[in-house]
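Handoff note, outgoing to incoming analyst
You'll be picking up this chain. Sequence as last confirmed:
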Amino acid sequence: MDKLKFRQVHLDFHTSEAISDIGKSFSTENFQQMLQLGHVDSVTLFAKCWHGWSYYPSKISERHPGLSFDLLGEQIKAAHEIGVRTPIYMTIMPNTVYARKHPGWVKRNKDESLVGAPNFTVPGFYNFCFNTPYLKVVLDQLTEIISTYDADGLFLDGVSPTACYCQNCVASVLERGGNPLNEDIMLLFQEEIYLSYAKQVKEIIDQYKPGLPVFHNAGHVPLGDDDVIQTNTHLELESLPTGGWGYDHFPLSIRYHQNKAIECLGLTGRFHTGWGEFGGFKHPNALRYETSICLANGAKCSIGDQLHPNGKMDAFTYEQIGKVYAEVEEKEEWCVNVENIADVGLLGLEAVGVHKFSYVDYISHTSDLGALRILQECKILFNVIDCKEDFTRYKVLILPDHVLIGEELLQKLNEYIKQGGKILASGESGLSLDKSRFELDFGVRYLRENPYVPHYFKPHVPLKNLSDKTSYVIYSQGHKVEIIDAFELGHGEDPYFNRDAFKFCSHKHTPSSQNNSGPELVHGKDGIYIAWNVFSEYAEVGSLVQKETVEYALNILLGEEKTIETTLPAQGIVTLMHQKLNNRYVNHILYAVPVKRGEDIEIIEDITPLHGIDIKLRFDEKVSCVYLAPQMKKLEYKHEDGILCYTVPVVDCHQMVVVEI
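Most recent structure output, in case you need it:
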């Protein structure tokens, strides 16, 4: 099969049995016209929805009672006639129809409540356990679909190895001698069942349509779980910024997975909020930005839509999608076969297994988010990595807040440091597994957790926008260390006392005692250590001192080896991709500012064009040409002593600059 298409639509069709005349307004002409209006080159079509209804004449599962014809078959035929691919969607674990018939097959939480909707008295969906006869039903229907229809791929939804406490699973674990009350044991059992399911899916594909692309979706692709990731031929990173994921989730996820050389697409939605929203639309500029950030990070694009039960495609929706995808279409040739250039490797906490991953958590630990924001805002090129990564690819490794060092990781870090690599660690990162000592040489001895929360930090050097003449409040957990052989860049100050019911000052927290309480920012042999949870605090509080302390530390560690510098404002994003097969590099520059509307929704509406953005690249290769893409307008540039400089005249949401070598 060819690689993923750039301009995809994920056409949801979760439709209640209480609605009749399903697909009554479907027509080949309307379907084709809307796909063409939307510049769509691939549309994911529904075989079975979360309600449990099928949209074709299935012999395994019940067809929707309001549907009188083969809707799936007609959609595939219409799309293929105009050269549009048709991956087929099938829900896997959620199934309301079967849940009411076979309640004993539904997954259970530890308290015996149902997984999904808590019980049958509230509207919602119910997830099935594969340690029941339901798995055979799923595999039989999948076989029916693949053997009957000309699918261009499979999107298998609502499937993940989450714990189940149904009586089948409890009995199975007991038979193995395990303890069903141990969550780790139950999770491992479910992952085993999941991997068996995925293996059987592959066997069906190999039998009927070898090489057919397949993706198993759970709303988030875990960082670091290779066994689960490798059950997919590609990744569709579901990430609707207004639907609960936010604008941080996709950049964090793609910077890990694209680095793993697996083909990815970003799945957003046209909805103002999230899936299942009829009549909700975001501003077209939001879709422009969301597809652009996919391209800037080496991913293809998919936009979620929901088909009306009558089967007629909405013209306004595809006008909006078409405006966005017309831009994507012009940019595609500079966005294929790319590799991200990165100076820094961020050891993501989910990726290194520090925190247990939950499939219902759409974003990782706050320290990862804080690091992501700082790196993007400071325009530092990075990848999110795990412990299997080749560390020597990076000039600096960041260990954010909670990376304790075991024997295997220590050996790998020591080899990296021997070859000139540097570490930036914070909080308890760098400590031994028992938290008794530093395993890395930051020139300090670990003493204990700081008993004062909050405390204060006084830098010894002026930061970018902050002075060294005052101290700054630190709300997160700090740590006490003492100097052995390090250069002290800042010290801590304790408050007069911790705030409690009988001893407090003012409205928020106790002021600093202004007494030096020990080093807080130190530069030792192996790198720089920051003695508090700086990344978590930036994610949660966003105070300037957090970002500027990290930026100062990274500038010291990177020195003259920093690949890119730019005048792009903080909310702008910059990436540098290498198109090796085309002998060129592509510099992506994006700018938009999400704002909060309502209670918890970030939206993008106005995009203000930026003018005269200067770029400076550390670039040793010989340059033959620099131009704007897709405009094909040449730029003047200066390339001396390994430094390439050019000015981007205008950035309107997204601009690519191509450096030919």
